[in-house]
Each structure stands twice: as C-alpha cells, then as structure tokens.
Amino acid sequence: MNKAECGIALVTGASSGIGLATAQALRREGYRVFGTSRKPMPDTADGITMLICDVVDDASVQSVIDEVLGRAGRIDLLVNNAGLGLFGGAEESSVAQVQALFDVNLFGVIRVTNAVLPSMRRHGKGRIINIGSILGLIPAPYAAHYSAVKHAIEGYSESLDHEVRAFNIRVSVIEPAFVRTVFDQNGIKPDSLLNEYDRARADFDALLRDVMPKADLPDVVAGVIVKAATDARPRRRYTAGKTARQISILRRFAPAEIFDKSLRKQLRLPV
Length: 271
Ligand SMILES: NC(=O)c1ccc[n+]([C@@H]2O[C@H](COP(=O)([O-])OP(=O)(O)OC[C@H]3O[C@@H](n4cnc5c(N)ncnc54)[C@H](OP(=O)(O)O)[C@@H]3O)[C@@H](O)[C@H]2O)c1
What we know:
CATH class: Alpha Beta
Strand content: 5-15%
Number of strands: 7
Low-confidence stretches: none
Structural class: alpha/beta
Number of domains: 1
Distance between the termini: 56 Å
Number of helices: 9
Order of helices and strands: EHEEHEHEHEHHHEHH
Strand order of the largest sheet: 3-2-1-4-5-6-7
CATH topology: Rossmann fold
Bound molecules: NADP nicotinamide-adenine-dinucleotide phosphate
C-alpha cells in the first residue's frame, strides 16, 4: 500500500502553475486531493476535486474547509500555494496595492491555516506546507513588497512550526526561484508608475525574458512539495531547484559585501 494512500490533501490555487502540478503529483503519490480556484472548475480527469475558494474572504475559506471535512472527514496535508506577484519600484505601488498583495499572500495563508488547524489538532496530526520564495531569503530590487511578504511567510511558518509541533503538526516552507508559470501575467501591476524607473523596468523585463524560458518547471517544485509532505522528519525549509539552492547557500556563507555585489551583477545593476 502506498504510504500516502488515504491521505487527504488540500492545495490552494490549484488551477494553474505550481498548485496544479502539486495537486497532480500528490494524486500520483496516492493522496485524495482537493484543489481550489476562485472560479468554478470541473474535477480533473486524474481525480482532483476542484472547489471554489477566495483566500481573501473569511467565509469562502471556512466554507471550503467545511466542505472538505464534510466529504473526507479530515485534512492531513494543507499546501498554501495561492499567491500573486507584484514587481516594480517600491514607490510605484500604493499602500492599497501592497495591502491587496499581503491579503492574498500572507493573510490568505493565515486564514486557511487557522481554519484547518482545529481539525488537524483533533486528529493529532497534520502537515502544512507554505509556498515561499527565494525572495523570502534575499531581498531583491523591484520586488520589495513581494520580498517583504515572502519574508513574512518565513517568519510566520517557522514560528507556527514551533507552536504546533506539540500537536504532531509540522510546518515547512518551500523556496523556489524562477518557475515557468503564468505568475507574471496574473500578478498585480504597479498603479503609480514613475518615469524615473523606466530604464530599470526595461532592464528587469529583459532579464525576465532571458531567465524565464530557462526557469524550473512547476513539476520541480511539486516534487519538492511531495518530499516535504512525506519526509519522516520534515525540514522547516526546502529550496526547490538548482538556482534556489545555489542562492540559499551563497546567502548563508558568502560575506554580505560579496553577496551584495553578486546580486547586483546578476540583476544587471551597476555594482
Ligand atoms: N512562478 C514563480 O516564479 C514563483 C517563484 C517562487 C514562488 N512562487 C509562488 O508560487 C505560488 C504559485 O504561483 P504560480 O507561479 O504557480 O502562479 P499562478 O500559475 O499564477 O498560480 C497562482 C494560483 O493562485 C490562485 N490565486 C490567486 N489569487 C487567489 C485568491 N485570492 N484566492 C485563492 N486563490 C488565488 C490562482 O487561482 P485562480 O486564479 O484560479 O483563483 C492560481 O491557481 C505563489 O505563492 C507564488 O508566490 C512562484
């Protein structure tokens, strides 16, 4: 019998990209998988049950958790994947936009987690996997707000892991670098563009055009999520893909000055 057979998994944002690849990989691993999207979607041919959920809406979150618990009785694994990007100069976004970003990427994670934890505690076990980013480890220019929210995910996840370990629940963060999804098209666009950043924006866009075709496929991240879900002793954080691993090692061991120079060089900024 497969080790994950009968495990019940919930993946938020399973309509595309990393969430879809993760739902499929968990299904192959033997989990019964519930995926969410804000829009109604048919269940997939490979057996993923699709439910509606908007993670910015308390009632929508509670209703999807109630539905999964009603149908399956418990949730063994929660993958908090739903998320958006926001890239541009830090001063090019209004506070309202940044709040909207945090509402999905951080408060959405907290809403879903708070709704799932009581049932995990009741069952005496559970695993929560939050999708962070390498930008949760290294702040990067033109990603100040996204980087801030992914740093928040790191702090939240590690704190929570300490708290819920007593209930046999573990929390891990996955840290991908660039991943080939429609993430850049789905993200929030800055609402206060400034001419002063035109050059930097063009350079950043050119960099993305170069990097994205070579970026990791969502399956790479999904594979790491399955590992985190099934490891006997889950780690608090997992990098996903070669680039993320290299950046994480560099961040830990390179002197700050050298890291700063290397980051600017990689991002084609004057050193
Ligand atoms: N792609 C990358 O380079 C990259 C790198 C590092 C980390 N990540 C992280 O990976 C996660 C997934 O991103 P992706 O690249 O797979 O992008 P994606 O293909 O755009 O997927 C984003 C998912 O989030 C869902 N979503 C967005 N807003 C939502 C809301 N308010 N409530 C519920 N669901 C919502 C979308 O579902 P619907 O639109 O169907 O509702 C979609 O399924 C995000 O947390 C992102 O920060 C991505």
